[in-house]
Every structure is written in C-alpha cells, then in structure tokens.
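Why should sequence recovery work at all? Because a backbone constrains its sequence more than one might expect. Tight turns favour small or flexible residues, buried strands favour hydrophobic ones, and helices have their own preferences. The token representation captures these environments compactly. In the example below, the structure is given first.
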C-alpha cells in the first residue's frame, strides 16, 4: 500500500537555526499516525511545513502528488486540513458561525453531520464560541475541520491544557473518527494516549525522528516508557 502522505528529508529553518534536520515519515490512509516528543522536538514545525504555512526543504507527497512548496490554500484544497489549537476558534462568533466557515460556501444543511457527531454543539449553536468550555472549543475546532471534508486531518496537541476528564473525551472523539476511517496525523505530548490510539508512531527529538514502530511496539519499549510515559 502506498502511504497517503509521504514526508522525506524535511528541513525547516528559522533564521540561522535549523529546527528540522531531515524528517521522514509516512501516514497510511485510514490510520492514525502519531508524532510524539518533548517540547521543541519539532512536531509543530513538521505540521506547519505540511500545511504550507512555513517554508521547508525536502519532499512532501500527498496521494502521489508533490505538494512541497504549495501555498496553504492549495494544500487545504488537496484535502489536508489542520485542526488549530482549541483556542483558535473565533471566540466572538457563534458556534454555528464558526462551523459555517468550515463549509466554505457549501450548503448549510451539511451542518447536520457536525451536530449529529457533536450533539453538544447543536445545543450550544447560538452561543458565542468563547463561552464554551475548553473541551467544547476543541470539539468545535475538530467539527469545523471535518466540515471541510479532509482526506487527512492534522491535529496539533488537541488535549493541551485540558482537564483529565476532558482529555479523555477528546481522545474518545479521536477514536470515533478513527473507527469511521478518518486518516489522522496526531501530534501529542500525552504520549500514552497517543500511542494507544496510533497505528504507527514516530518519536521526535531535537528535529529528528529517532524511533518508530506501531503504537503497541512503542508502548512496550523501555526507553520510550522511561522518557515519554513517566515510568
Ligand atoms: N517561529 C519560530 N522562530 C524561531 N524558532 C522557532 C519558531 N518556532 C519554533 N522554533 C524552534 O524550533 C524548534 C522546534 O519547535 P516546534 O514548535 O516545532 O516543536 P514542538 O515539538 O512542537 O514543541 P512543543 O511541544 O513545545 O509544541 C524549537 O527549538 C523552537 O524553539
Ligand atoms: Mg508544538
């Protein structure tokens, strides 16, 4: 099977400092691919390079097409949609107005799919998005991204800053999406939950991939356990 996304020798620099030193990984259709690693490892830079919002060297192939260097709107049009961090929803617009942006002009009847998936958003649809809890805002961000009909969903730390119970809910949402066949690249510092969900996972350190395996393999790895799972 050819991977849906293939990243080869990705290099990113900020000014004089190179932050990614040749990152290579692949994501298969229908699978969850996790990138884990400590602060500053280069996880967000990797997603930003794929989304086209920062310049990068190297090769990025999506569905067999070379998309490296393409502008962000073209990447979205190709089907790669990044879920911004929860707090990047438009706080002074209503929940429904936020969702409508995901439709990008398609008929608003399609909002029904988002409300079926997230009934809480239907209940809260007339509220300002800024009035939602952190977990609800994260769901709104995911729902909006899904309305753009992604073929690949990029998620950067969807559980960041959320209370443990809410983190659990967010990961249950991601598990649902996985069961529905949504292809995801998931960046997380919550390595335990990310590895449990992931089909394949890559460990990043200081701008490099230092290890990869199935989620299960990395969960059983002593070095990974010591460094990233707190035991
Ligand atoms: N805009 C920027 N300008 C300069 N350096 C940056 C910029 N963004 C990131 N960096 C640096 O690039 C490296 C990788 O950062 P990146 O944010 O990609 O890591 P990360 O794995 O997402 O970290 P975190 O877990 O903290 O989100 C770090 O050394 C960081 O300081
Ligand atoms: Mg980051």
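From this structural description, the recovered sequence reads:
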């Amino acid at each position: 099977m050819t991977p849906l996304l293939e990243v080869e020798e990705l290099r990113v620099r900020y000014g004089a400092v190179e932050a990614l030193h040749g990152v290579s990984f692949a994501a298969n259709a229908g699978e969850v691919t996790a990138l884990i690693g400590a602060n500053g490892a280069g996880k967000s830079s990797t997603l930003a390079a794929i989304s086209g919002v920062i310049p990068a060297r190297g090769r990025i192939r999506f569905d067999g097409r070379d998309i490296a260097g393409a502008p962000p709107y073209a990447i979205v049009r190709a089907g790669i949609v990044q879920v911004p961090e929860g707090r990047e929803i438009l706080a002074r617009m209503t929940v429904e107005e936020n969702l409508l942006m995901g439709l990008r002009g398609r008929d608003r009847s399609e909002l029904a799919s988002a409300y079926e998936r997230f009934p809480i958003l239907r209940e809260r649809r007339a509220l300002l998005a800024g009035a939602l809890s952190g977990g609800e805002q994260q769901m709104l961000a995911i729902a909006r991204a899904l309305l753009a009909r992604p073929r690949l969903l990029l998620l950067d730390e969807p559980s960041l800053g959320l209370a443990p119970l809410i983190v659990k809910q967010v990961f249950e949402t991601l598990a649902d999406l996985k069961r529905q066949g949504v292809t995801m690249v998931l960046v997380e510092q919550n390595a335990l939950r990310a590895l449990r969900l992931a089909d394949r996972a890559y460990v990043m350190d200081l701008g490099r991939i230092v290890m990869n395996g199935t989620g299960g393999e990395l969960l059983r790895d002593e070095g990974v356990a010591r460094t990233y799972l707190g035991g």
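A few observations help interpret the result. The pocket of adenosine-5'-triphosphate (ligand 1) is lined by residues 14, 19, 37, 39-45, 189 (CB under 6 Å).
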